[in-house]
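Try this one yourself first.
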């Protein structure tokens, strides 16, 4: 559905310019492919009935409110506008439409919106605007005269305009949607129509209901959700490092990490992370120990992740650009024994943990042959990583992920997204966001290559980086 109702300035009477001025500069629609049909009709179930408690509010106004709610949700906006016709018993033509503009907030009740419609009513002569305009992309026609006149009015509306037509015949009514498949898929049009009918049935039953309390999920939506989630992924009782080790064995010379500061093959990543794991195990890192990682995007950040996982511990990324008090709050929560950092942040991180380990090319444990990694003691139900949210109360809240849960999701993601050895994945998201864990670990499980930009490229030259590193 188009995300703007007015996509270029149109000629309006002074009455309409003021309430609609904020919509005149809406961003243009994206280009859409050519469709194959126009004006397909989809009907709501026969004898759809609206039950109205308050007689002073006419059914047509409820239909307008229900459509406004639909638009508000699809546009993610509390302010919506659309064309509609004035509904009067003696009306004999609808070649003139009026713009409806409403403000909808979750804390308001349906009665408040109905009053909003009443207050904005103006004499028909002042409000009427001829429908021959290309500006609006949504219209609602209530009880239009049937036959040639209705078809004539439909012809006046701009191409691509989504139109809901309501015919009321007490005690029932029908809804029809007219749309252009160049702009909206027929499945989506059917869904919108059924959602409109579903909301309308609730409004008629209780006009005192709060907008935020309305159930916007139609019966068909529930059926579709049930169908889409019918196949639940089979739980995979594995550890992440074991799956990645299998990848290393299958393709030891393949590139695992291609970063601005250098590449690592699967063999190199396995060797370096095993050395680090042995060093961490000697420091007492094991299952349920959370180790903070404070890195910019770098191949050494991937080595640090894998080193912690192989040692049996769990990791949590800290963003060195965040205020020190936030990082201290997180570290006070997890009480780390050690923190792994890049060469840029050792002094900064002394305020977060007593033992600071720098992971870079010069780290001494790369050449320490006295200790070898003897395997992880982590189990499928062991903690893999933690992610801290911003916290609505101002205090960061941690979310924990276990090995088996991640492995189950990763395998399903690989199948759904077609990830495999030829995948070159652009790792854009901040390391403190959960999606970065999927970007990195799922790619390694699939045997793909993680492409890590410098901070400059990440902020200034994404397209250039994608081309240079052949991201696919």
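Now uncover the answer:
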């Amino acid at each position: 559905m188009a995300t703007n109702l007015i996509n270029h300035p149109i000629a309006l009477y002074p009455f309409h310019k003021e309430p609609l001025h904020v919509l005149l500069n809406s961003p243009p629609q994206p280009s859409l492919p050519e469709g194959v049909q126009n004006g397909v009709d989809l009907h709501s179930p026969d004898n759809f009935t609206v039950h109205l408690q308050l007689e002073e509010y006419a059914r047509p106004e409820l239909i307008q409110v229900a459509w406004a709610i639909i638009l508000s949700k699809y546009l993610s906006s509390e302010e919506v506008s659309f064309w509609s016709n004035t509904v009067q018993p003696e009306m004999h033509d609808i070649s003139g439409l009026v713009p409806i503009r409403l403000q909808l907030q979750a804390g308001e009740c349906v009665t408040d919106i109905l009053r909003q419609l009443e207050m904005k009513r103006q004499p028909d002569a002042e409000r009427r605007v001829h429908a021959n305009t290309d500006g609006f992309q949504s219209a609602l026609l209530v009880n239009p005269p049937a036959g040639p006149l209705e078809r004539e009015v439909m012809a006046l509306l701009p191409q691509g305009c989504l139109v809901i037509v309501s015919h009321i015949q007490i005690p029932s009514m029908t809804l029809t949607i007219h749309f252009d498949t160049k702009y909206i898929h027929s499945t989506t049009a059917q869904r919108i129509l059924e959602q409109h009918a579903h909301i309308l049935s609730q409004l008629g039953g209780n006009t005192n209901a709060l907008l935020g309390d309305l159930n916007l999920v139609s019966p068909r939506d529930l059926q579709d959700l049930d169908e889409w989630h019918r196949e639940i992924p089979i739980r995979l009782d594995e550890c992440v490092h074991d799956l990645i080790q299998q990848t290393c064995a299958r393709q030891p010379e393949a590139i695992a990490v291609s970063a601005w500061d250098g590449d690592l093959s699967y063999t190199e990543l396995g060797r370096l992370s095993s050395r680090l794991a042995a060093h961490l195990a000697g420091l007492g890192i094991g299952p349920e120990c959370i180790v903070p990682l404070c890195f910019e995007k770098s191949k050494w950040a991937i080595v640090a992740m894998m080193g912690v996982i192989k040692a049996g511990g769990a990791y949590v990324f800290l963003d060195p650009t965040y205020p020190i008090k936030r990082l201290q709050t997180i570290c006070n929560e997890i009480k780390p024994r050690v923190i792994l950092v890049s060469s840029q942040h050792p002094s900064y991180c002394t305020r977060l943990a007593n033992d600071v380990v720098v992971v870079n090319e010069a780290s001494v444990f790369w050449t320490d042959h006295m200790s070898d990694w003897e395997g992880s003691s982590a189990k499928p139900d062991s903690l893999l990583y933690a992610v801290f949210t911003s916290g609505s109360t101002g205090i960061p809240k941690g979310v924990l992920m276990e090995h088996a849960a991640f492995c189950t999701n990763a395998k399903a993601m690989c199948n759904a997204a077609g990830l495999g050895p030829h995948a070159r994945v652009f790792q854009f998201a901040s390391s403190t966001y959960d999606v970065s864990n999927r970007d990195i670990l799922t790619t390694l499980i699939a045997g793909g290559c993680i492409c890590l930009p410098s901070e400059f490229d990440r902020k200034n030259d994404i397209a250039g980086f994608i081309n240079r590193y052949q991201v696919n």
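Discussion: The chain has 16 helices and 17 strands. Residues 1-27, 35-58, 123-127, 129-134 have pLDDT under 50 and may be disordered.
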